[in-house]
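step: validate -> pass
step: tokenize input -> pass
step: predict -> running
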Amino acid sequence: MVTMSRRERAGSRKPETYAVVGAGVFGAWIAYCLQAAGHKVILLDEYGPAGSRSSSGGETRIIRCAYGSDEVYTRMANRSLSLWSNLCEQTGLNLLRRIGVLWLAMPDNEYAQGSREMLRKVGVRFEDLSAAELARRYPQIESKSGAVAINEPESGALMARQAVHAVVEQFVKFGGVYRHAEVKTPHGKGRLRSLLTNHRESIAADAFVFACGPWLGKMFPDVLGKRIFPTRQEVIFFGIPAGDDSFEPPQMPVWIDFGDNRGMYGFPDIESRGFKIAFDHHGPAFDPDSEDRLVAPEKIKAAREYVAERFPALANAPVVDSRVCQYENTSNGDFVIDRHPDFENVWFAGGGSGHGFKHGPAVGEYTAARVTGLADPAVEPRFSLASKGIEQHRSVY
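step: predict -> pass
step: emit ->
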């Protein structure tokens, strides 16, 4: 599953010890990639892998390659798609549901046109659907007059919590160590020798990677406190009419309504969970530790109004479940993967910004290569700390 071969491992320098803090999708894959490169790795998380407070929790996440004309994330998503598939083969688990991702847009949409051009360049298979073909193939969707669609047939849904657990289990199976513990903020500068946990345990390592999502700002308030913006994001599940299979795969794909200014996307009825509706617009600031996770009535009302417009058969469907998660945004939506400015052997990887889950495998490879120095990746300037501001101007979707 991991790119480094046994021959490459044998030719690498002496194995080192790494501590990775945060067992969400970024931290799990970083730990796995470091372990696969022949190093000793300990992975720590205060609430458990993909816990209900984390940005990696919940049932499903989208994996799609279309990113407008953005080549960086299109290539990363395509690479990650392969690695997620490899994980499924290795574990025998159905973690990647290739049920397609349907982009709804008007014909003149610049993002859609940029996506077409970049998908062709990178070699990602897709198909254009005319308004007539969209209506014929998906009669359960009431699209805007003249709306067209892009379909990525090999993309789809990742079973989020299950997938993170699978990565951590594989990491442990091949020799990694996982600990359920809270890590205290390190202080000082120069070279960090160890971390202290809430169990008064000292964790020594040659280098440390903090991939703790919405907690990054709390862990490093001076460096990231004003550069990581956790926001409240609601998800609502609507019940499917009895005996109706038109809202489950393969009749219904994952969908993203890029022609609607409300920023809506969702999932078909996977594993009889319900029809998932989510809001991509950033919600208010949110504390992942202390705030209640009850969906606001106005969000349920907004989701119901949208469903009645786009999916008329669900207009009177009951809400069967709901949850509150969070994004951990950077100022513009780019990831932050960089060295701590005060510590020579401390790194952080985060800023998933609502689109990061799919990229976990590629982030793991990139971060492991940067941290170990065994590979010489093309350093992506967009992931640098210096490129992150303290005001939000989102540019990545």
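step: describe -> Residues 256 and 283 are 18 Å apart (CA to CA).
step: cleanup -> pass
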